């Protein structure tokens, strides 16, 4: 009996380059794929032998800056849910870099510091049970997104998946990089030692899992590591 072809299952972790990967898949780069919606958890069926799992990740510091900037434009579910709870938390200047905006960002971080861990757990839980699933998943880090995606697709192909590399290169050349990037100030400019400590204390366990320490950390453990798909 012929086995089912390997399917790539992409679980969309928002504000970490997922929109780029979704569009890449829709462009036909992978023949057999499935995209789970934002904030979906992994399902039991995603861990069948004919499945290859991929998602994205991003360090909590730059994640919070991006989430704040997105909300400062009046966008996103997080803004809609919390704008009336977190008063004067969103930026108002055109460049989001005024002294007042930094104070607003400080209030936002004080209110939202644990949001990163909550969303990582929400996306990577199994069947929505809260049981965190980090093994046997190929993580692509937003800071070096396309390099990591290429490594994940190479692994997917090595295990029997079909990748159209010509369409991959065409997509990269046409988009020229991140096309869903939220405009915001440099991450490192938004934090002082006190604010960094708030984020670290609120997310320390998962930050250690991914070896995240500062803004824009390259997640060396995301690809070709214990977190990726294995035969064990």
Question: How is this fold's topology laid out?
Answer:
Layout: E1 7-11, H1 18-26, E2 33-36, E3 51-57, H2 60-72, H3 77-82, H4 99-112, H5 115-124, E4 138-141, H6 145-158, H7 165-175, H8 193-210
Parallel strand pairs: 1-2, 1-3, 3-4
Keywords:
41% helix, alpha/beta, globular, 232 residues
Helical proportion, percent range = 40-55%
Number of DSSP strand runs: 4
Strand order of the largest sheet: 2-1-3-4
Largest sheet: 4 strands, parallel
| Class inferred from helices and paired strands | alpha/beta
The SSE order reads: EHEEHHHHEHHH
Task: Report Rg.
Answer: 18 Å
Q: Work out the helix count.
A: 8
Oligomer: single chain
Strand fraction equals 5-15%
Q: End-to-end distance, in Å?
A: 24 Å
**Overall geometric form:** globular
Mean pLDDT: 86
Give the low-confidence spans.
Answer: 223-232
Description:
The chain is an alpha/beta fold and 232 residues long. Helix content is 41%, strand content 9%. The chain contains eight helices and four strands; from the N terminus they run βαββααααβααα. It has helices spanning 18-26, 60-72, 77-82, 99-112, 115-124, 145-158, 165-175, 193-210, and strands at residues 7-11, 33-36, 51-57, 138-141. A four-stranded parallel beta sheet has the order 2-1-3-4. The two termini are 24 Å apart. 34% of the residues are buried.
């Amino acid at each position: 009996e012929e086995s089912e072809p390997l399917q790539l299952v992409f679980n969309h972790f928002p504000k970490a380059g997922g929109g780029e990967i979704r569009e890449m898949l829709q462009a036909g780069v992978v023949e057999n794929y499935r995209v789970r919606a934002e904030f979906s958890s992994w399902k039991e069926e995603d861990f069948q032998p004919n499945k290859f799992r991929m998602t994205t990740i991003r360090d909590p510091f730059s994640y919070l800056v991006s989430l704040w900037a997105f909300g400062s434009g009046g966008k996103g579910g997080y803004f809609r849910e919390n704008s009336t709870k977190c008063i004067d938390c969103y930026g108002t200047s055109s460049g989001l870099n005024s002294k007042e905006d930094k104070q607003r960002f400080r209030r936002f971080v004080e209110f939202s510091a644990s949001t990163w861990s909550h969303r990582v757990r929400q996306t990577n839980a199994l069947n929505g049970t809260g049981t965190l699933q980090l093994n046997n998943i190929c993580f692509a880090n937003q800071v070096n997104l396309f390099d990591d995606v290429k490594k994940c697709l190479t692994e997917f192909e090595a295990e029997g998946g079909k990748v159209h590399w010509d369409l991959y290169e065409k997509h990269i050349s046409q988009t020229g990089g991140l096309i869903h990037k939220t405009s915001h100030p440099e991450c490192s400019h938004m934090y002082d030692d006190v604010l960094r400590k708030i984020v670290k204390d609120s997310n320390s366990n998962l930050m250690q899992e991914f070896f995240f320490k500062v803004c824009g950390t390259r997640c060396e453990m995301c690809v070709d590591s214990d977190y990726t798909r294995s035969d064990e």
